[in-house]
Amino acid sequence: MTPFTAKITRAFWIVFGFLFVGIGIIGYITPVMPGLVFFLIATFCFAKGSRKFLRMIISNKYVGQQILDFKRGKGMTMKTKITAIVMMLVSMFISAFFIVKIYWVKWAICITALMVVVIILKQKTKPIP
């Protein structure tokens, strides 16, 4: 790989890292999207593009510990599980029963909500420090 290609590749990963950080921030503000998933993708992008930005996201006081816990397989606290499930169910069921008019889409939203609940409940429960 030439130095020019390496710079373009690094820039690509950095740009996508910041894009996913932005989406992750929106995900933490709104209950509709899971923010942590996008921060994990941003972490992957920064690992490919910039160690400096990778250290910054991992040392972030809001998401850094969650990223490290996920990477180490430590799981979620019960409070985090309950909050995630309640916020997700409320937003998805409001969408399914008050916003969406097509029946198969309503069913798809409900089935997706139940699948996400199962995935969250299958995660390890770590004790509160």
Low-confidence stretches: none
Number of beta-strand segments: 0
User: Mean pLDDT, nearest integer?
Assistant: 85
**What string, H for helix and E for strand, traces the elements in order?**
HHHHHH
| Rg, nearest Å | 18 Å
Number of helices: 6
Major sheet details: none
Helix vs. strand class: mainly alpha
N/C terminus separation: 46 Å
Beta-strand share of residues: under 5%
The structural domain count equals 2
Helix proportion of residues, in percent? over 70%
What is the overall shape? globular
Describe this structure in words.
The protein folds into 2 domains: 1-74; 75-129. It has 6 helices and no strands. It has helices spanning 3-29, 35-49, 51-58, 64-72, 78-99, 103-122. Helix 1 runs antiparallel to helix 2 and helix 2 (35-49) runs antiparallel to helix 3.
Condensed summary:
With 129 residues, the chain is an all-alpha fold.
Core attributes:
6 helices; mainly alpha; 129 residues; globular
Secondary structure blueprint with pairings:
Layout: H1 3-29, H2 35-49, H3 51-58, H4 64-72, H5 78-99, H6 103-122
